[in-house]
Amino acid sequence: MGGLGPWPAALGPKCFRVRAIRDFRTVTGHTPKPPAVFLMGPTASGKTDLAIALRERLPVELVSVDSAMVYRGMDIGTAKPGADELARAPHRLIDICDPSEAYSAARFREDALREIKAIFAAGRIPLLVGGTMLYFRALQYGLSTLPASDPHIRGRLETEMEIDGLPALHARLARVDPAAAARIHPNDPQRTLRALEVWEASGRPISELQRGNRQAMPFRAIKLVRSPASRAALHERIDRRFVQMLEQGLVAEVESLIARGDLHPDLPSMRSVGYRQVWAWLRGETDRDEMVRRGQAATRQLAKRQFTWLRSETDAHWLAADGDVLDQAVRLLASGGGGD
Predict the structure, then answer these.
(1) Pairing state of beta strands 125-130 and 317-318?
(2) pLDDT score, position 51
(3) Per the structure, how many domains does the chain have?
(4) Lower CB count within 10 Å: N or C terminus of the chain?
(5) How far apart (Å, rounded) are the C-alpha atoms in residues 183 and 163?
(6) Poorest-pLDDT segment among 31-35, 128-132, 223-227
(7) First vs last Cα of the chain: how many Å apart?
(8) Strand order, beta sheet including 317-318
(9) pTM for the whole structure
(10) Residues 245 and 310 both lie in one domain
(11) Given pLDDT bands bounded at 50, 70 and 90, which one contains residue 214?
């Protein structure tokens, strides 16, 4: 599909909406799909600030794509937008479940499609912002049908993990499903166990099953990537932000979660970067300096995995970090993203 043509940023959001709708309605040969914006990037890259600025310039509504921001009571460690920011630019899919719950990519897809439909119905454009790349992928391509969890297989695998350790199970996964092992972090027990469980239950790699029976998304994605000028600059920002989170009260936040009495370190919510390192320190497993180093290192590893996902997004527009990213984003969206 052709773009919308040159569009000066000064024309304002009404022009953007009218011309976008007109362009998508005048395409011939197929039923046009409405546009949705994916604003992606590594952690600590400034995605939230850019998303808020875009909402103040264009007729977009924000949908969070973050596997940790969905949890209530987890604000500081997730870098959740503050009350003032949310008043200026409400984010959907923030604070939608309790930390005791397990939130999945399948549930995200269902929730996101519902919110996207509502935004389209209001005559506006969805802007999905976050760094949980698996959620973006699930939304864009859908999810394949996998075997139901088998409690006998899962129980045996969990026992083997307790005896042999998670590295041994991840190494086994690398032998039977190299593609899944490359995608799943060696320190991720939940996804490692699930991948091995699927292999044993079906005799087929989970990576193979996930490629089949996928559903097309009912909209056209315009993908923007917000990234720093250099990896070193991002690492410096990550290290500084983790220290700032501690100064803002991250330890007290984790203490309040522990005090509930119904949470444990193996829950998906408590395995979020930052929370698991602080929890380990509060249990006396490390000293404070080691906790800080581990938290910073885990966040840098998260950013590395996000970059790996982002490099596979061949149709994404990378915003130049040394320029005016807001102006770049506005002009790309005004041109229809240059996609088909």
Answers:
(1) unpaired
(2) 98
(3) 2
(4) C
(5) 24
(6) 31-35
(7) 4
(8) 91-92, 60-65, 125-130, 35-40, 220-225, 317-318
(9) 0.77
(10) yes
(11) low
Q: State the Cα torsion 225-76-236-280 to the nearest 10°.
A: -120
AA identity, residue 9 = A
HSE-CB for 125 with a 13 A CA cutoff: 31
pLDDT at 200 over 80: yes
Q: 195 and 222: one domain?
A: no
User: 């499903």: which residue's tokens?
Assistant: 177
* HEC assignment per residue over 37-72: EEEECCCCCCHHHHHHHHHHHCCEEEEEECCCCCEC
- CATH for 277: 3.40.50.300
Q: Dihedrals φ, ψ of 59, to 5°?
A: -80, 60
**Which of these, 180, 226, 200, 244, lies nearest to 51 by C-alpha position?**
226
Of 153, 149, 130, 207, which Cα lies nearest the Cα of 176? 207
Contacts of 186 (CB under 8 A, 6+ apart): 166, 167, 170, 192
Report the distance separating Cα 111 and Cα 108, nearest Å: 5
Instruction: Say whether pLDDT at 309 is over 50.
Output: yes
Tokens found for residue 283: 């249990």
What radius of gyration do the chain's Cα atoms show?
Answer: 21
Contact between residue 259 and residue 61 where contact means Cβ atoms under 8 Å apart = no
Measured in whole angstroms, the distance separating CA 58 from the mean position of its chain's CA atoms is: 23
